[in-house]
Specification:
single chain; alpha/beta; seven-stranded mixed sheet; 6 helices; globular
Length: about 200
């Protein structure tokens, strides 16, 4: 099997953990900070972190429009936590000046599961991921308030949508990169292979 080049948007957040998880999932993992680096990857992970800061840095580094263009063109993309917010078409409670990349027809609520001290781990059944539930690490996690007709809901927790897919865009509220379980990264790597 070929090893696709999967970038991790390295502006802010848990970049190193995603690079390690993607490498273990069979990809050639690379950091992406500039448009020319984005052009060299087959797929992209937008990591967890702080979505407002990530949005402002993406604009500052000239990455917002190239990201939007690649996602619109069908580049596989996977957003975790803040990355889920970045992939939303609409944020219910955005901070001033906060922008998104878009790509998934959903409305998300920032910090929906609570503040930092209310972070938790939970077993989450994700459709399409074999081998039982994945361990979800929820840190100031968003949830999905509503989805459009083209969006497939992959997982719910506590009555709220926490994993979705639309075409070649995947998003989770939680952080699989902070666990030793790389099945979601393998799932994404397979998505990237199927798009090649």
């Amino acid at each position: 099997m070929n090893a696709p080049a999967i970038g991790v948007l390295a502006l802010q957040g848990d970049v190193r953990e995603h690079l390690a998880a993607q490498a273990r999932a069979g990809a050639v993992a690379r950091t992406v900070r500039r448009p020319e680096e984005l052009a060299e990857v087959d797929g992209l992970v937008i990591p967890g972190g702080e979505s407002t800061t990530m949005s402002k840095l993406a604009a500052l580094f000239g990455m917002l429009e190239p990201l939007r263009a690649r996602v619109r063109a069908g580049m596989p993309v996977y957003g975790t936590c803040a990355g889920m917010i970045m992939l939303a078409e609409k944020i219910l409670d955005p901070r001033s000046g906060q922008e998104t990349v878009g790509g998934i027809d959903m409305i998300v609520r920032r910090n929906a599961f609570g503040r930092q001290n209310e972070s938790f781990e939970a077993a989450v059944d994700v459709a399409g991921v074999e081998g039982g539930p994945v361990e979800g690490v929820f840190i100031r996690a968003p949830w999905v308030e509503s989805v459009g007709a083209e969006v497939q809901v992959l997982a719910e927790y506590g009555g709220h949508v926490v994993a979705v897919r639309q075409g070649m865009a995947l998003a989770t509220s939680f952080h699989p990169e902070l666990t030793g379980d790389h099945r979601l990264h393998r799932f994404f790597t397979d998505m990237v292979r199927s798009a090649q």
